[in-house]
Design goal:
The complex is a heterodimer.
Chain A: E1 9-14, E2 18-22, H1 42-51, E3 60-64, E4 68-72, E5 76-82, E6 87-89, E7 92-94, E8 100-102, E9 108-110, E10 118-123, E11 154-156, H2 178-181, E12 183-187, H3 198-204, E13 206-209, E14 217-221, E15 236-237, E16 242-245, E17 251-254, E18 261-262, E19 266-270, H4 275-279, E20 286-291
Parallel strand pairs in A: 12-20
Antiparallel strand pairs in A: 1-4, 1-11, 2-3, 3-10, 4-9, 5-8, 5-10, 6-7, 6-9, 12-19, 13-14, 13-20, 14-17, 15-18, 16-17, 16-19
Chain B: E1 5-9, E2 13-17, H1 21-34, E3 40-45, E4 49-55, H2 58-66, E5 84-89, H3 96-102, H4 107-115, E6 119-124, E7 131-134, E8 149-152, E9 156-160, E10 163-166, E11 171-173, E12 176-180, E13 201-206
Parallel strand pairs in B: 5-13
Antiparallel strand pairs in B: 1-2, 2-4, 3-4, 6-7, 6-13, 8-11, 9-10, 9-12
Classes of the chains: A mainly beta, B alpha+beta.
Chain lengths: 292, 207
């Protein structure tokens, strides 16, 4: 082993459809055009870190629709949270939402979730790829941070300071059904660019999640929101959770990898406490908005 | 004070509307000087707005901003405080002849007009390090191409509306391309990573 090689590593055997390294994101660079990035389901990522005794800013793996298998070089404690699904060590089923010890060389598999989209795998010590502009998050819009995981990647792990503290099972969240419970929205900065009934339409209609949804945003199909002002909007700063209405009249909810500025009007902003639900919406699922 | 309106959005953001990009740049620079990083997470200038995102106390910030004097004489924008950067340009873009045509000039005159202009980076967006440079006289503003190119090479210098911009990396794009530069615009190992952050004064120098 060379001096440069990390002693503790995680070998990516199968990366699955879309797995990335994520932490709490890359704020403070938006004025240079750098997206925020970070785990889409932030509470789930935070819980995974707590379960393995990591600090809240440790990097985890965000696993989209499962399919991830990894092999630690040394015995490690891991936890899988977020979208619930099968977890296995070699051929044995392991717990979801609890700390699990994986012996050196064993194969940990995060399977396709039964509900939701994104599962989070925390490893004690954290994923220790080099930070870029203060974050280890992969930004899929601008390509800042580590690349999307590929088969045979070798990820360095940080030192695990101490055995993880035990934590109560009550910490595991009830995911609920975002389609039924809906997202709370606050009025957006350009609500006055829309026809009078647009807010009512947005908050009473049922939208359907489109397959083109990704870390940049959730694209929706449903009733079109009619504008009262049709001139071009000068590009302006965008916040996380902004509900932007494109030329088609269809809304899009911006998530962590959203562009920093945009030239379509924002009709509403999703309450930050509800944003994690957007991370777990499957294509074809219904979505409703309610005034906060 | 040249602030048109302060809009509260979401739970912790303020969007401040201003009459022009010079005021947006001045407000951004003043805010960066005066606001502690603990009080606001991100300050994002744009064409007619400045976004304050992740604000600890919105009412206090709105009140503070309203009390600022952005321009000492309250008439003309102060000269931006940023660095001055020369961007070497080979004026050979595929849209240069069409732009010169719109400006009712020869290609040589168009190059002279563009390179004689002192630009200011009003804001960044579209891609990390992509600087929206303002300064062109209004009669020289040109529309975007009706049919965006699927691939614009890195370093391309383009025009759209009041802006001149440089593509930091290859991407699709609808700007009118007038030339290219070899100047590096983005390096995450540098502080700041952008060569042309908001407030930078820019000259395009023919090569």
């Amino acid at each position: 082993m060379t001096a440069l090689a990390s002693e503790r590593t995680l070998q990516v055997v199968r990366a699955g459809p879309m797995s990335t390294v994520q932490d709490r994101g890359r704020p403070r660079w938006a004025h240079l055009g750098v997206p925020r990035a970070g785990a889409l389901d932030a509470p789930a990522a935070a819980l995974a870190n707590r379960l393995v005794g990591n600090p809240p800013d440790a990097a985890v793996l965000e696993v989209t629709f499962g399919g991830l298998s990894v092999r630690p070089s040394q015995t490690v404690t891991v936890a899988v949270t977020g979208a619930p699904g099968p977890v296995a060590v070699d051929v044995r089923a392991a717990a979801w939402g609890e700390p699990v010890s994986v012996r050196a060389g064993r194969l940990l598999q995060v399977g396709t979730p039964t509900v939701g989209v994104r599962s989070y795998l925390a490893v004690a010590g954290g994923i220790a790829v080099a930070p870029v502009l203060g974050s280890r998050s992969t930004d899929t819009l601008a390509g800042i941070g580590p690349p999307v995981l590929a088969d045979d990647d070798e990820l360095p792990l940080g030192a695990s300071a101490e055995p993880p503290a035990s934590i109560g099972v009550a910490a595991v969240r009830q995911d609920g059904d975002p389609g039924r419970t809906g997202l709370r929205v606050l009025p957006g900065p350009r609500l006055d660019w829309f026809a009078e009934d647009a807010w009512t339409t947005l908050t009473r209609a049922t939208y359907t999640v489109q397959a083109e949804s990704n870390r940049v945003g959730v694209r929706l199909q449903g009733p079109r929101l009619v504008r009262s002002r049709h001139e071009e909007l000068a590009s302006e700063g965008i916040v996380l959770g902004a509900v932007q209405v494109r030329a088609s009249g269809l809304p899009l909810v911006f998530l962590a990898d959203h562009p920093t500025t945009g030239g379509y009007p924002v009709i509403a902003v999703v309450h930050p406490d509800d944003l994690w639900r957007c991370a777990q919406l499957r294509p074809g699922e219904p979505l409703t908005f309610h005034p906060a | 004070m040249h602030i048109d309106r302060v809009v509260r959005l979401g739970t912790d953001a303020l969007l401040v509307e201003v009459p022009d990009s010079a005021t947006a740049t001045a407000l951004f620079e003043t805010a960066r000087d005066r606001i502690s990083v603990e009080d606001v997470l991100d300050i994002v200038p744009a064409a007619r707005t400045v976004l304050f995102d992740g604000v600890a106390d919105r009412d206090a910030l709105a009140e503070e901003i309203a009390g600022w004097t952005l321009f000492p004489d309250d008439v003309a924008p102060a000269r931006p405080q940023g660095e001055s950067v020369d961007v070497p340009v080979v004026y050979d873009g595929p849209d240069l002849a069409e732009v010169a045509d719109r400006w009712q000039m020869s290609v040589e005159e168009a190059v002279a007009a563009h390179s004689a202009t002192e630009f200011t980076v009003a804001f960044c967006g579209f891609a990390p390090g992509f600087a929206y440079c303002t300064g062109l006289a209004e009669r020289l503003h040109v529309p975007r191409r009706p049919d965006p190119r699927t691939r614009v090479p890195a370093g391309s210098v383009g025009l759209a509306g009041e802006f001149t911009g440089i593509y930091p990396s290859a991407s699709p794009g609808g700007w009118q391309l007038i030339g290219h530069t070899g100047l590096g615009l983005w390096d995450v190992d540098r502080d700041p990573p952008a060569t042309l952050p908001p407030g930078t004064r820019v000259r395009f120098v023919p090569r």
